[in-house]
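Researcher: Let's do a round of design. I'm pasting the structure tokens now; please hold your answer until I've finished.
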């Protein structure tokens, strides 16, 4: 079975496809870094849409997601964006964790696995 990698750098690939399973690296906001959790979540989910499209799938085929927040007090703010984005009836298994992220300007990071 072949492995495809997209947006590969020296440390990691943003997208890895093995068979009919698509694995995304943790996604953080680029343009909205340092802005509100709402804006960061919107950008992160937009990036995820793009990564899934490159791999030949979409959010309706998400299997699992892990959401990292730097402050659980922003859980409702993140969920307000998530709830408007996620495919109704196709919600993935999900965990949300409070954690320090790679840089202080990041407040949201999301990892995902999807089927093709």
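Researcher: That's everything. Go ahead.
Model: Designed sequence:
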């Amino acid at each position: 079975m072949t492995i495809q990698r997209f947006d590969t750098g020296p440390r990691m690939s943003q997208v890895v496809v093995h068979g009919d399973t698509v694995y995304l690296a943790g996604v953080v906001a680029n343009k909205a870094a340092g802005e509100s959790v709402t804006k960061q979540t919107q950008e992160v989910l937009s990036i995820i849409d793009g990564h899934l499209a490159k791999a030949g799938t979409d959010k309706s085929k998400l299997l699992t997601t892990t959401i990292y927040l730097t402050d659980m007090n922003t859980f409702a703010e993140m969920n307000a964006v998530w709830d408007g984005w996620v495919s109704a009836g196709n919600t993935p298994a999900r965990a949300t964790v409070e954690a320090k992220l790679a840089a202080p300007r990041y407040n949201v990071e999301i990892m995902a696995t999807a089927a093709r």
